[in-house]
From TrEMBL:
Protein name: Cilia- and flagella-associated protein 61 isoform X4
Keywords: Cell projection, Cilium, Flagellum
Coiled coil regions, renumbered to chain: none
Signal peptide span: none
Keyword Manganese: no
Start and end residues of each Cilia- and flagella-associated protein 61 N-terminal domain: 5-279
Length: 333
């Protein structure tokens, strides 16, 4: 079981976040000063992601983090950070607008320092194009202890870069960057078509969730499917590199073009997906009318009135047999 539950922060979490910021024994980095203005200021500025972490065992709030597509530097225009990086730093990686996010703020309880890695992984899973997370550390200046940043835990999983003007002897109190590389925390994944030789590994993976498939189809149904060369079927596997530098199967996909589109259009709301069809340029098409079950849309607020509850009792099994309100035609190209 996962030690932490990671999710996006919501407006209802403001009270808990306000208590976490004022809790003793917390570590943090970023600009914490605006957070002390009260809970109404927590969500005042734009952030790409606001992530919080709950302890799975106790459901207690243990961490909160903010990520954005530009750094939290007041004097730097939001669209000039790439020029700022290339001018002030000599970086060993290629950073662009698309592959980087800035880790602008994080606060977590000191006894749960491992939550930092889990939060970063969650963001990287959400953003498949992001390769680097960048945290900016400002030069040291004397200030009250509750405003002092802590980068010790972040430094363990990142590389530290200093500006070009940095000098150990003459100028060692400068700005610095902590850059987390995606592929240090997450393994690289490669995809390929499944082979008959993958039969045992794939069946062992599927047997964990669907043991009945092996009982019904036998011990070699994957190899038989691959060797059958079904034009409507494609089997794909994904491999990762383990600590021993050996590839191991991590994902298996069984794709099929043999789909009953009418079934899904009749029973599910597929309008936002173009009813699963796409016209081909230069080819003729026709319309087909069908009747699908639907319900009358209502405002959310109206679902909790006394009249709505009486209607619910009247049309469900509590007050009688359930009824279908209406039927509307659906158009398919």
């Amino acid at each position: 079981m996962n030690q932490f539950q990671i999710r996006l922060a919501q407006a209802g979490d403001q009270d808990g976040l306000n208590k976490l910021i004022r809790s003793p024994g917390v570590k943090w980095f970023g600009n914490i000063r605006p957070k002390f203005r009260g809970k109404d200021s927590l969500f005042h500025s734009y952030q790409t992601y606001r992530i919080l972490a709950l302890c799975t065992e106790s459901s207690a709030l243990v961490a909160y983090a903010e990520f954005r597509n530009y750094p939290s530097i007041a004097a730097l225009p939001t669209d000039c950070w790439l020029e700022w990086l290339s001018t002030r730093y000599c970086l060993s990686m290629s950073i662009s607008w698309l592959n980087a996010l800035f880790f602008n703020f994080c606060i977590y309880k000191s006894e749960h320092s491992t939550v930092l890695v889990e939060i970063i992984k969650d963001v990287l899973y959400r953003e498949s194009r992001v390769w680097f997370l960048i945290a900016v550390r400002i030069p040291y200046m004397p200030q009250p202890i509750h405003f002092v940043e802590t980068f010790d835990d972040l430094e363990k999983i990142s590389k530290v870069f200093y500006p070009l003007e940095y000098s150990m002897d003459k100028n060692n109190n400068t700005q610095s960057l902590y850059i987390v590389d995606r592929f240090v925390l997450l393994p690289r994944i490669s995809y390929r078509k499944a082979l008959a030789e993958d039969n045992d590994d794939i069946i062992a993976m599927q047997e964990v969730e669907n043991p009945e498939m092996r009982e019904e189809l036998g011990d070699y149904y994957i190899a038989e499917e691959v060797m059958g060369q079904n034009p409507k079927s494609m089997l794909v596997v994904a491999e990762t590199i383990n600590q021993s530098e050996q590839s191991e199967m991590a994902i298996f996909l069984w794709l099929s073009s043999d789909i009953d589109i009418m079934f899904y259009v009749r029973n599910y709301q597929m309008e936002q997906f173009g009813n699963l069809v796409k016209p081909a340029d230069g080819r003729s098409f026709h319309y087909e009318t069908m009747t699908v079950s639907s319900v009358q849309r209502r405002a959310e607020a109206s679902m909790f009135t006394a009249d709505a509850l009486e209607d619910l009792d009247a049309v469900t099994i509590l007050g009688g047999l359930q009824k279908v309100d209406s039927a509307w035609p659906a158009w398919v190209r």
